[in-house]
Protein: N-alpha-acetyltransferase RimI
Organism: Nocardia aurantia
Amino acid sequence: MTSGPVGDTDVRIEPMRPADIDRCVELEQALFPEDDPWPAAAFRSELSGPYNRYVVARDGSGRMVGYAGIALLGTLDHPEAEVHTIGVDPDCHRGGIGTRLLRALLAEAGQRGGPVFLEVRTDNTPAITLYEKHGFRVVGLRKNYYLPSGADAYTMLRPGPTGGDQPNEVLA
């Protein structure tokens, strides 16, 4: 079913469509079997969120090999963003796809400015390394964050373009 590793240059990043949800669910089950993989309803909800941006990575044949999403939060005067998910087909790991997806999310966040947050399993060394290469640093620990496995997560932060690293207060 898979066509083997995909090179970074063979990949295009484009907006996620509802037709991509079944493949996202398939990848979720392969990637996160111990941590309550997202069902189709979760992806539908995320896609319908007005402040969410989701993208997919497609190989040269058009097969979806990864997905990622970010929420653009706060106000225009005090923006911030939160990476919700990044997933890459296991057959394509270490091929630069995660980097391309993360860069697409950071470009979305960069249009507004502000800090970017995310959570990552403390034992996911490749992801932590990727995030650190893109300016994120660990700012907190969430015990038993992932369920049902009970795995811990780091909260990571990439400061906004002005260097501010505190979440912006949203005024009601």
User: Anything to note?
Assistant: Residues 1-7, 164-172 have pLDDT under 50 and may be disordered. The chain has one domain: 8-158.
